[in-house]
Amino acid sequence: MKKQILIATGLAVLSTSAFASKARMEALGQNDDRGSFYVEDSRNVFRNAAKVNTHKNYITTEWGTANDAADSATAPHAEGGFFREMGSFNYGVYLGSEIDAQNAARTNYQAHDNALDLFFGGDMGVQWGARVHYAAGNTENTGTHKLEHSNFGLGLGMMMGDIEGYANIILSDESKGGAAAGDKFEANGLNLGLSYDVMGMTVFADYDADGYDNTVSGAKTEQSNTTMTVGVGRIHEVSSTARLNMDLAFVSSKEESKTASATTETKQTKLPLTLGFEADATSWLTLRGSVTQNVIVNNNEVKSTSTNKNTIANTTDVSAGATLNFGKLKVDGSIGTTDTTGTAGTETGTLALDNVLTRVGVTYWF
């Protein structure tokens, strides 16, 4: 407890309104991977590369481990980057992003890791931006077959007045040599979106499709996932130090897995409602939180040898987080994701002061 008091006393300095972290996005009920459709945050550069013109002149780090597991609140992945303006242009270099890595499905193959993202953008009446994603690796040991992986992706975005549009594409993603030399894994991905600001609200539509073909010992498994999201979000300024974020979206998704002998199809339709807040409690502390739940529409259907239909259980989710402000230096984190013993991911609703911030992100704006 003494530690927290000393930190709070030492941080009683200035703050700014710039934010950038996965922890913030999660606490506000937004996507921590590509960022939000309507809440401004530097994570949005991974959704719309043109945001490199809005969020610039900072260096950010997401604390975690250098593993190839999917990034999550319970097992955060180490990554970070540097963004800077250069005359009338803006650029960025980001290390370690695992967006669209699909490592969970890449069993026995060379993992997608050591990724590099390069950003470049400018403003010619229309703000534009581009992102190039690259990752490659191999393992070649005497007496065993060679494992190889390579990934090349492209992100494009534009902003003109109240309109934003973006496209994120996996141009090639291939892994060779899984359990045997002839095994092969090929992934694909396409993300398209458009948003429009009208009457203080943001109306958005997003199409996301990805999948892979996995050939093991001559037998192929085909996986395809598609999600269509249409919704509206709004930021309401309660005061100069407090903001509410609210969004409602219709989400329709389909997952299909095919083998030579069977096909399994899962369809979901849902209407998630998110209510969140962010408040500058003091000059050195910003607190935030949100609650999300599917309302009215909440359906799940699984088809394989039989058809099963049900509503999706336990969709209510509450998140919280905080930012400690050292002037231009920001320390973001999640709150309440551990129990009294510090066990990650339990979300027991306990404020554990010995482990008060998890999923830590540190950003310096200059």
Descriptive account of the structure:
It is a single chain. The chain has 366 residues and is mainly beta. It has one domain (2-365): Porin, CATH 2.40.160. 4% of the residues lie in helices and 57% in strands. A 16-stranded antiparallel beta barrel has the order 1-2-3-4-5-6-7-8-9-10-11-12-13-15-16-17. A hairpin with a 2-residue loop joins β6 and β7 (163-176). The relative contact order is 0.15.
Task: List the main descriptive attributes of the protein structure presented here.
16-stranded antiparallel beta barrel; mainly beta; 366 residues; disordered N terminus; Porin
Looking across the biggest beta sheet, what order are the strands in?
Answer: 1-2-3-4-5-6-7-8-9-10-11-12-13-15-16-17
Number of domains: 1
Q: Which regions contain 5 or more consecutive residues with pLDDT less than 50?
A: 1-16
Rg over C-alpha atoms, rounded to the nearest angstrom: 21 Å
The biggest beta sheet is recorded as: 16 strands, antiparallel, barrel
The CATH architecture term is: Beta Barrel
The tally of strands reads 17
Strand content: over 45%
Structural class: mainly beta
User: What is the CATH top level name?
Assistant: Mainly Beta
Number of helices: 2
Average of per-residue pLDDT values = 90
Outline: globular
Helix content class: under 10%
How do the helices and strands line up, and which of them pair or pack?
Elements: H1 2-10, H2 22-27, E1 58-62, E2 79-86, E3 89-95, E4 116-123, E5 127-139, E6 147-160, E7 163-176, E8 184-198, E9 201-216, E10 219-239, E11 242-258, E12 263-282, E13 285-303, E14 307-311, E15 317-326, E16 329-335, E17 358-365
